Amino acid sequence: MKKYLIYFIFTISLLAHPHTFIDVYLTINVKDGKTNSINFKWKIDEMTSTMLIMDVDSDGNGKISSKENRFIKNNYFTVFEDYNFYTYIKVDGKVIPFPKTKNFKATIENHRVCYSFDIEGDFNMKKTVIEVGDTDFYVAMMLKQEFLNISGAKAIATGVDNDFYYGYKVEFK
Amino acid sequence: MQYYSQLMQLLVSYQYELNRYISTTIRSLNDENSLSTSLLILGIAFIYGLVHAIGPGHGKALVALYFTSNKSNYKKAFKMGYSIAIIHAISALIFTFSIFFILKTMFRQNFNQLSDIAMQISAVMIISVGLYLIYEAFKSKNEKEKILIKSQKSETAVAFSAGVVPCPGVMTIVLFCIVLGHYTLGILAAIAMSIGMGLTISLAGIFSIALNKKAGGFMEGRTYILEMIGGGLILLLGLFLLMGSL
After folding, report:
1. For labeling, which of A150, B6, B23, B70 is most exposed (least CB within 10 Å)?
2. ipTM of this predicted structure
């Protein structure tokens, strides 16, 4: 019976597979081990971007105007608040509330829709860990070492392997 | 659980690479390389389907539950796996083409809304299948002496209830092809992908039948208990999906 149970849990524990892939690029300028601002740039996979572009590039010129930028922010970006932007910032091992996002800008680069945004706060980088991942398993957040643009500190991106959820984390040294 | 998580991570990274590879290949398609590139795209779509279906999904959960609780053979597992995959792909094709050509704009909003409705229909159907299986199990308990031949009906119902939800993975590829003007390739890619998915779903069924055979010994004469548990779990799965999509 145990076998059945294990198999049952295995199959339905997570009811979706990733259909959207987002590359997460981080830009941080660290000074004396601290920073006030972290820039995120999400690069959405080309196929999902195609669907998005159909909806958001209303004039079809392959560029995002300021009007289209507002539309994307209100209709496609703020919804991620409910999902904590798939990002968990841990200070001393505890997740802090995700700061309000600023300077949202959407662009189209090489057929891919990109979202750039900043968060602000007093971050002591040695105590800070940034984790990305979707607990619902619908979006795959990819954060690789080569996506990091960090000055003034050493950062290492590795995979996170929690029980029903996984993703990537960045630690600073 | 750690190995399971590692396996999922590996599967995601494979899908990530395949997703990138397939989109750049479709975009590189032109008059000069059309045949070789099209074949390459179909090959990748097949592998993508295969890997895509290894990830957790309600189709496999349903097939696994059905076959762990109902005596069957490997041939039937293949048949059901492929029925689900084909219905899954046809549903995705119909959804994508109709949304694209009839509604045209606001694709994503419609996509999400219609996917939710399809999921609700599927959940209600899965609940009905669960109830039906429990009813059948009760019947076979009362008529222990007689050999009950399971009707083909329940298997078709299982395949249809799981398959009716269009596969977003297929929809994405089909839409990508349509947007770039490769209509036929879009349809063929959906077929290639569903052949891959069908294989994986069938293997889940076969695995469950193997488990069932092993367990059959000590459950001899009381298989209705297993059938009831299976029916109950399918019912729960349906309720779970329904709640998730409301």
Report:
1. B6
2. 0.78
